[in-house]
Amino acid sequence: MLLFAFSAHAEIYKWVDSEGRVHFGERPPSSGDSEIVHVNVTQPSLTTPSATNKSVASAIETAKKSVKKKKVTMYGTDWCGYYKKARNYFNKNGIPFVEYNVEKLPHRMREFKKLGGSGYPLIVISKNSKMNGFSESGFERRYNP
């Protein structure tokens, strides 16, 4: 048996399904886009093929846990600067979200009012938390309690 520090390189595929859920796997999905997440695994012990496979599986689980799975819905208007700021923040940070322009979609305006919207944007996080307006710190407190 050999004792040495073993370093393995694994490719993990990441993709988002049609419902906005993030998936990871050892193979890319049969349809749709995916990106490769590079994972370097260092195993400082006796290594066997099964130990390497366990390390890769552990890396996949760690990556899954780091992905935020909360649903974000945003109601706003094109003229609102905070609406644009929120959209840019979500895109920059890889936060999946659905947005509705309440001026172009009357039924979304009714939803906005029913949800208690009093300012733009109204951001709903997993139906449990709402915020009127947008600030990065305010969003992060609600999204990552």
What key attributes describe this structure?
single chain, 145 residues, alpha+beta, Glutaredoxin, 2 domains, 3-stranded antiparallel beta sheet, 4 helices, 32% helix, disordered N terminus
Outline the low-pLDDT stretches: 1-7
- Got a strand count? 7
CATH architectural type of the largest domain: 3-Layer(aba) Sandwich
Distance, first to last CA: 47 Å
Number of helices: 4
Shape: elongated
Sheet with most strands: strand arrangement: 5-4-6-7
Binned strand content: 25-35%
What structural class results from the helix and strand content?
alpha+beta
What integer value in Å does the Rg equal? 21 Å
Looking at CATH, the homologous superfamily of the largest domain is: Glutaredoxin
- What is the N-to-C succession of helices and strands? EEEHEHEHEEH
- Main beta-sheet annotation: 4 strands, mixed
Write the layout of secondary structure elements.
Blueprint: E1 3-16, E2 22-25, E3 35-46, H1 49-66, E4 72-76, H2 81-92, E5 97-101, H3 106-114, E6 122-125, E7 129-132, H4 136-143
Parallel strand pairs: 4-5
Antiparallel strand pairs: 1-2, 1-3, 4-6, 6-7
